TrEMBL record:
It comes from the Bacteria. CDD domains: CAP_ED. It comes from Nostoc linckia FACHB-391. Residues 19-111 form the Cyclic nucleotide-binding domain. This is Crp/Fnr family transcriptional regulator.
Length: 193
């Protein structure tokens, strides 16, 4: 568990070191069965997380329809950062698509990082990474066609297509499941020609 967490930290700030003895008692994991929620829209998100095993999705409801923002495979962060920091209701829900295990980053552990040398730099870099990820998603929804978004998904996250039901992929791309089927057929025809 600590190894995966340490590797995650090193992605952002290789020189950042934190004493295992200091944080190990604060590291906890939670198992989330397929279909279960880690947290729901409207609840206060009391933690941030790192997917150790499985896959979860972040989504919100609009007019009774689920819109998927992100998928969280192994070694990817999750949580409603603003809800966690400001202790206000979450803007979205997080649900397991597969049986999953998540490392929980509690407020207490977060404070240890804030006080550690280089800790605030690591937290800033991580927050920036989340902001850039959200910016890229938003720009893609406005600038790219559904076909371009699907092709980008094929190039950058093809593993998702093997692990995630098509109706979640459609929601992630901002299209109806029927449109995704037509889009896939159209792309296959182009590949054959």
């Amino acid at each position: 568990m600590f190894e995966q967490f340490s590797e995650f930290i090193q992605q952002f700030l290789p020189e950042f070191k934190i004493e295992l003895m200091r944080i190990e008692p604060l590291l906890k994991t939670v198992k989330v069965q397929k279909g279960e929620f880690l947290f729901r829209e409207g609840d206060v998100c009391e933690f941030l997380g790192l997917t150790l095993k499985g896959c979860l999705r972040t989504f919100f409801l609009k007019d009774g329809k689920e819109l998927t923002l992100f998928f969280h495979l192994e070694n990817q962060p999750l949580g409603d950062y603003e809800s966690f920091r400001k202790q206000q209701p979450a803007c979205f829900s997080c649900q397991a698509i597969e049986d999953s295990e998540v490392l929980i980053v509690s407020n207490e552990l977060f404070q240890v990082f804030e006080l550690a040398p280089e800790g605030q730099k690591f937290l800033r870099l991580h927050a920036e990474s989340l902001a850039f990820m959200l910016r890229d998603k938003l720009l893609s929804l406005f600038k790219d066609t559904p076909e371009q978004r699907y092709l980008k998904l094929l190039q950058t996250e093809a593993e998702l297509l093997q692990r995630i039901p098509q109706y979640y992929i459609a929601s992630y791309l901002g299209v109806e499941p029927e449109s995704l089927s037509r889009l896939k057929r159209r792309i296959q025809k182009k590949a054959i020609s």
